[in-house]
Write a structure and sequence with these properties.
Layout lengths: L6 E2 L5 H4 L7 H5 L5 E4 L2 E4 L9 H5 L5 E2 L5 H8 L5 E5 L8 E3 L7 H9 L4 E4 L10 H23 L9 E3 L13 H8 L8 H4 L19 H9 L9 E3 L9 E3 L8 H5 L5 E5 L3 E6 L9 H5 L5 E3 L2 E3 L7 E7 L1 E2 L6 E2 L9 H14 L1
Parallel strand pairs: 5-6, 5-7, 7-8
Antiparallel strand pairs: 1-4, 2-3, 9-14, 10-13, 11-12, 12-15, 16-17
Helix pairs in contact: 5-6, 5-9
């Protein structure tokens, strides 16, 4: 199968939104070292790219997309049939649809077909050892299947059983799932790890304005589909744990927020918002818009923002207020401002005073 090279949309990328971001989902998924990362995002090296599309499905924010590999089109075709089969192109096997690599079939699509009770057959994974996409493709397939199983377990509480995908001629799915990314490591051992690296990050304890780039809010088809997958008819919670392959996360906030609004400015989906009225300021979170890109965890310098290990994944939940502060009034300019601690003057006036002192002594 031949597909177009993936296209990169910078404003969707967390490395573009926050220049110090260490996200490398796309690069970790690429078997050919064809993705070059910098603080502006990612670039595809076409001399190395072999069109496996693993980077497309690995990116939670939709920063990488292919004009000819569109999982949503496969889904539209699948729901019209009593059963559906997908084969990887390197295997040469015949199926209803052919994809560059089975690892590119994301967990949400697998779960959706299972919930719809449409039998899904995945063909060709036995060829992974001979395939140039091999090890990375097989690992991504295992991760996606594990995530789909997690969604199924949550749904079984409702008394509905889902169909598991049929894995034809496969020998790779017995491999354990390995979650190696930095954020998952930090989540398990706690934010105390920052004390070890405090000297390395002290230089940017306050995020400069130029470190966060503005851009339009984005949504992804995968996240919209997950809304349907997680919906329950009985109104009960759909409990699920955080999973690397799912664009789904619930935030928690510990004491110590400085109200710097960096998480709000860096969020590419609008899941984090600032709500204000004449008296109060509030930092809010909307689960339905979050795609678990984790850039908010990276940009939070006090390290008080984190992800919950487990949460209710049902759609259309009320907006969560993470932090609320009463507005203060500046004694110098009479403007309202927000501060984590009581203060007589606003940040603008304090900056003016510091600048005046620096110039005139």
């Amino acid at each position: 199968m031949t597909i177009a090279y993936p296209e990169f949309h910078a404003s969707c990328c967390t490395r573009y939104r926050y220049r110090y971001s260490e996200c490398r989902r796309c690069a970790d998924a690429c078997p050919h070292e064809a993705i070059v990362l910098d603080d502006h995002g990612a670039e595809i090296d076409r001399s190395r790219c072999q069109n496996c599309a693993l980077c497309v499905s690995a990116c939670h924010t939709g920063a990488l997309a292919s004009a000819t590999f569109k999982p949503i089109d496969l889904l539209r075709q699948a729901i019209k049939q009593p059963a559906y089969s997908i084969a990887c192109a390197p295997s040469g096997l015949a199926a209803d649809a052919t994809v560059p690599c089975l690892g590119a079939i994301d967990a949400v699509m697998i779960a959706y077909l299972g919930k719809r009770r449409i039998p899904l057959s995945l063909l060709g994974s036995a060829h992974c050892s001979d395939c140039p996409h091999g090890a990375r493709g097989a690992a991504q397939l295992v991760l996606n299947l594990d995530a789909a199983s997690a969604l199924k377990r949550a749904a079984q509480e409702e008394g509905r059983d889902w169909l598991d995908p049929g894995l034809v001629d496969t020998s790779v799915v017995s491999k354990p799932v390995r979650a190696e990314r930095r954020q998952l490591f930090r989540r398990f051992i706690g934010r105390g790890v920052d004390a070890v690296t405090a000297s390395q990050t002290a230089a940017r304890a306050v995020i400069p304005d130029r470190a966060i780039r503005a851009g339009p809010y984005v949504g992804t088809e995968q996240r919209e589909l997950l809304q349907i997958v997680c919906e329950r008819k009985d109104g009960q919670p759909a409990r699920i744990g955080w999973h690397e392959a799912l664009p789904l996360m619930q935030l928690t906030l510990q004491a110590g927020c400085t109200a710097c609004e960096a998480c709000f400015r860096a969020c590419p989906t609008g899941a984090i918002q600032i709500a204000e009225d004449s008296a109060d300021w509030a930092l809010t979170f909307q689960t339905d818009r979050c795609v678990a890109c984790e850039v908010c965890l990276e940009v939070c310098q006090p390290r008080v923002l984190d992800a919950a290990a487990g949460f209710d994944a049902r759609p259309e939940q009320p907006v969560q207020v993470l932090h609320r502060l009463h507005k203060q009034r500046c004694a110098r300019c009479d403007r309202f401002f927000v501060s984590a601690r009581p203060a007589e003057t606003c940040p603008v006036c304090r900056d003016d005073e510091e600048a005046f002192a620096a110039i005139f002594g």
